[in-house]
Amino acid sequence: MMFLQILFTFSFLFSSSNALDFCVGDLNTPQGPAGYSCKNPEAVIVDDFIFSGLHVAGNTSNLTNSVATPVFSTQFPGFNGLGISLARLDMAIGGWVPMHTHPGASELFVVMQGTIRAGFISSTNKVYIKTLEEGDVMVFPQDLMHFQFNVGKSPALAFASFSKASTDIYIMDNAWFANDLPVDILQKTTFLDPDQIKKLKGVFGGTY
Ligand SMILES: *[C@@H]1O[C@H](CO)[C@@H](O)[C@H](O)[C@H]1NC(C)=O
Ligand SMILES: *[C@@H]1O[C@H](CO)[C@@H](O)[C@H](O)[C@H]1NC(C)=O
């Protein structure tokens, strides 16, 4: 009798933990470091696990002639809590993604079309760089600065997946030049002339 009772208690515990198979994000809740709060599991439907539209190329007419279309937990709440996400990267001829990092997330980069020169810099300042062709996969280890250039004669397409459900794209140029960081501090930290710093602030929308 006692044994049956214990068995019953255990099966109850296990069946309630099964309800944590997923945590579809409730976009009405604030997004914290652990993501969104879970949508009520009773209200979760199959479409919460499906995202459509990644066949559509992004508009590459911007400063870098490239555009990333993110599918992070904000665009696709089904990723919430699972530690994975995805982006489509379109690069026009000559386009590039400037030096950037994804804090806490490694990136798996798959070239679908074109020729992309990509690389990263380790924390001992060693450069790992390679020209990738269609079907090549490169991994950018978490937190390291990396970049991609379309060096081919046609537009390039790649998909990137990340080891976080929502990934910051922390672009070095923007961190330095797209804000009101004082010119004298930038002069000391970058070793650039004040005129060059003001010019770069103009390019990236910063103020001084
Ligand atoms: C792409 O963006 C540019 C600049 O914002 C805009 O002028 C152009 O119409 C857009 N092209 C398409 C196809 O949406
Ligand atoms: C243009 O490129 C910049 C730098 O890569 C990126 O931050 C921005 O989102 C892009 N613009 C658009 C409209 O996608």
Automatic annotation (TrEMBL):
This is Germin-like protein. Its main location: secreted. The keyword Acetylation does not apply. Belongs to the germin family. Residues 52-198 form the Cupin type-1 domain. Keywords: Apoplast, Disulfide bond, Glycoprotein, Manganese, Metal-binding, Secreted, Signal. It comes from the Eukaryota. It is found in: Secreted, Extracellular space, Apoplast. Transmembrane segments: none annotated. InterPro entries: Cupin_1, Germin, Germin_Mn-BS, RmlC-like_jellyroll, RmlC_Cupin_sf. Residues 1-19 form the signal peptide. The lineage of its organism: Eukaryota, Viridiplantae, Streptophyta, Embryophyta, Tracheophyta. PANTHER family: GERMIN-LIKE PROTEIN SUBFAMILY 3 MEMBER 3.
